[in-house]
Amino acid sequence: MMRMMGNxxxxxxxxxxxxxxxxSVLAAMPGRALAAIxxxxxxxxxGKVVRDINSIINSGAPEATMIKRFEDVFAKxxxxxxxxxxxxxxxxxxxxxxxxxxxxxxxxxxxARRYGxxxxxxxxxxxxxxxxxxxxxxxxxxxxxxxxxxxxxxxVFIVAAKNGKFIDMQVEGIxxxxxxxxxxxxxxxxxxxxxxxLIADLxxx
Amino acid sequence: xxxxxxxxxxxxxxxxxxxxxACATAPAPSGYADPHEDQNRWTHRAxxxxxxxxxxxxxxxxxxxxxxxxxxxxxxxxxxxSLPGVVANNLLQGQIEDALHNTVRFVFNSTLGLLGIxxxxxxxxxxxxxxxxxxxxxxxxxxxxxxVVLPFFGPSTERDGIGILVDFVLNPLSMALPxxxxxxxxxxxxxxxxxxxxxxxxxxxxxxxxxxxxxxMQLYYLDSRRYELGVEVExxxxxxxxxxxxx
Lengths: 205, 247
Prior knowledge:
The structure holds 2 protein chains of 2 kinds.
Chain A lengths: L1 H30 L7 H19 L5 H15 L2 H9 L8 H20 L2 H4 L3 E10 L2 E9 L6 E8 L5 E6 L2 E2 H15 L4 H10 L1
Antiparallel strand pairs in A: 1-2, 2-3, 3-4, 4-5
Helix pairs in contact in A: 1-5, 2-3, 3-5, 4-5, 4-7, 5-8
Chain B lengths: L1 H20 L15 H29 L2 H25 L3 H16 L8 H4 L9 H7 L7 E4 L3 E4 H12 L2 H5 L7 H16 L1 H9 L3 H16 L7 H10 L2
Antiparallel strand pairs in B: 1-2
């Protein structure tokens, strides 16, 4: 019974997310015609991201609230769809549209849990934007994170010029997309390529 | 004692000369090969066991018994005590500016910072700039070597493993200190590691409990270390992913 209910809700969710994904594809089409953003626009966008994150880590709010607010920032400024499907990598090619959208949804929650729960460790820290360089059709915005008692470390945001969304973060040279691709790939291998099982496990947390 | 020190100075001078003659850059590292995987996975599992039975409980006790300001002071003391070693590495790499920066840090923190228990240098804008003998070897052109998991220290490479050993043995401050307080910096270092284990407990637990912990730790170590050393790694995978975004 529980299982059936679970299926039903996840079907509804899939349909819903599928619809959303469809909408965003539509939205992306005219996007191609839009003018690309400039380096200073990219920098000021990341400036906003950094300001939001600074206020979250120093808000003293309960962890669950911080994770929720972090998820909002992520949804607003990052291309979560792209990051999720890149993490799924070539394994995702054979996935159906509804599997893909279910995966994106599960991935988003997993990412928020995974990185959001670390905010306690960042309390009292500060992030500053340092500089921006253009690489092909994207900007690499360098930020520095200062934590009390530790050497400052670099976080580079990769911002797409065409829409100003960030498509990756590199923490001291560690790319979130690349490491998640490795992790998700290994998790999928362990489930003998069963994507539905992986989605279910990611949702469970 | 004196004799030993002078021998070490000669050895260091020799190393420095080697460094000057070997101005070649290290060959580019080769991806994520893991030729010692069986051995490495074994050590990885042993490290997790060591963590469960000793490091994690000790860190929890340390973190709960002592308040954060005290733990911060222990870390600051340990960091400061390691600075002469960092300066030595800066010099061996020819990084004069970093050597001066770290020397001034050491002077400030050892005096106004009360033997290093307060990091006053950071407050006046002289931030921490770390270095180690692994980096020195890199600057001298020594290749990364194979990926290895070391007991207790965890992920490393053959070159960085040697670096850890050399930094440990040739710590200038430990050599200069009188016998009765000689081991104080090392004790503080162990405690500061417990402090890190306590502060970043969620992250560490996640690595140790994750089904892909071994693979992730390898990727994280190699990527962040290569970034830290400024090694240009050809990464087609990431380039391709980014390029795909523009269709």
